[in-house]
Specification:
The complex is a heterodimer of chains A (about 100) and B (about 230). Chain A has about 100 residues and is mainly alpha-helical. Chain A is built from five helices and two strands, in the order H-H-H-E-E-H-H. In chain A, strand 1 and strand 2 form a beta hairpin. Classes of the chains: A mainly alpha (about 100), B mainly alpha (about 230).
Chain lengths: ~100, ~230
């Protein structure tokens, strides 16, 4: 077996182990006040970090490119209460058009 | 099926298809980095966590030792454990279901599940997002690995912006109070500051973690009326 195969299997085993470990945390820990507070903060914190990283990065570089057009369009559509899927289409289409013309 | 469940399924499929399409990029880059088609597909099928997979092939492509690459990828996968902890109370899987649920715990399935108000809706969003990404990601990985860069970049269709818009759409209804807006801002700033100095994927959990920590501190310093500090 090559070194690359062994490394691949380590990635597979390691990544799955993390996922399973989190689901196996005892109920007493889950019921703890701090755990509940943390769980309440995670969605906003996680989603905001994901928006930032998905919009302004390319690997380990900070960039401003056509994606900001799509995100701006998405924000406007959300402010006007446009439903989720048409909002996604609007963001993708505006970004694609911007890339086509500029 | 009621209207809200239909809407959640449609939203989940939208995210799933948008994100899963990126499998083609992974497949193409992995084989370019020197992995075989088998190794590339094994990673998408069995490791199934995008950021770790990209980190692995990134280190391999830059000439790093395979075990260094593996260590980086596994370290990055640690955030999925925090996702699992958040999901455990909502999904409450038992037995073989736990093994299956664990496999599809990733950024997007967690975000979609936690964005719902009711546990029942969380389960629907988690399953439909996770399974649709899994299927799409694996089919696209195979296509990318075999066909290479011939098909074209998902960026041409603006899919990268659609993924960002999806996260914004999920965060939007939660930004109604001041504490949430402060936490969101901190998460954004912290994540972006960390981007140039950490491996890809790390800014998400570290930036998010910084915002959560601040939330705990603010909650302790300014407890809401009627709630123990």
């Amino acid at each position: 077996m090559t070194e690359l195969w062994i490394a691949t299997l380590v990635v597979i085993a390691g990544c799955y182990a993390w996922k399973l470990l989190g689901l196996s945390v005892p109920q007493s820990v889950l019921d703890h006040r701090v755990t509940i507070q943390i769980a309440a903060f995670i969605p906003v914190a996680l989603l905001s970090a994901l928006v930032a990283v998905q919009t302004f990065t390319d690997g380990t570089r900070l960039v401003i490119d056509a994606r900001i057009v799509g995100l701006g369009v998405a924000a406007v559509l959300l402010a006007f209460r446009v439903p989720f899927l048409p909002m996604l289409v609007g963001a993708a289409a505006s970004t694609a058009l911007f890339r086509l013309f500029f | 099926m009621d209207a809200s469940k239909r809407r959640i399924i449609a939203d989940s499929l939208g995210v799933g298809i948008g994100v899963g399409t990126y499998g083609i990029t992974f497949g193409a880059l992995a084989t370019t980095s020197g992995l075989t088609v088998m190794q590339t597909c094994a990673l998408s099928l069995l490791a199934f966590t995008g950021a770790s997979q990209f980190a692995f092939i990134g280190v391999v492509a830059s000439g790093g030792a395979p075990m260094t690459a593996a260590f980086t990828a596994v370290l990055l996968g640690a955030r999925n454990m925090f996702y699992s902890i958040s999901l455990a109370n909502i999904l409450r899987p038992k037995g073989w279901r736990k093994a299956a649920v664990a496999h599809i715990v990733i950024d997007e399935s967690t975000a979609m599940a936690l964005a719902q108000e009711e546990p029942k809706n969380s389960r629907t969003a988690f399953a439909w997002t996770g399974i649709s990404i899994f299927l799409m990601w694996n089919v696209m990985t195979l296509i990318g690995a075999v066909a290479g860069n011939a098909i074209g970049d998902p960026k041409t269709f603006g899919l990268d912006a659609a993924v960002a818009a999806a996260f914004l759409g999920l965060a939007w209804p939660r930004l109604s109070d001041r504490l949430s807006r402060i936490l969101a801002l901190i998460a954004v700033i912290a994540a972006l500051v960390l981007v140039p100095i950490t491996v890809p994927g790390a800014p998400i959990i570290l930036g998010g973690g910084a915002a959560v920590a601040l939330g705990l501190i603010l909650n302790r310093a300014y407890p809401k009326k009627g709630e123990p500090a």
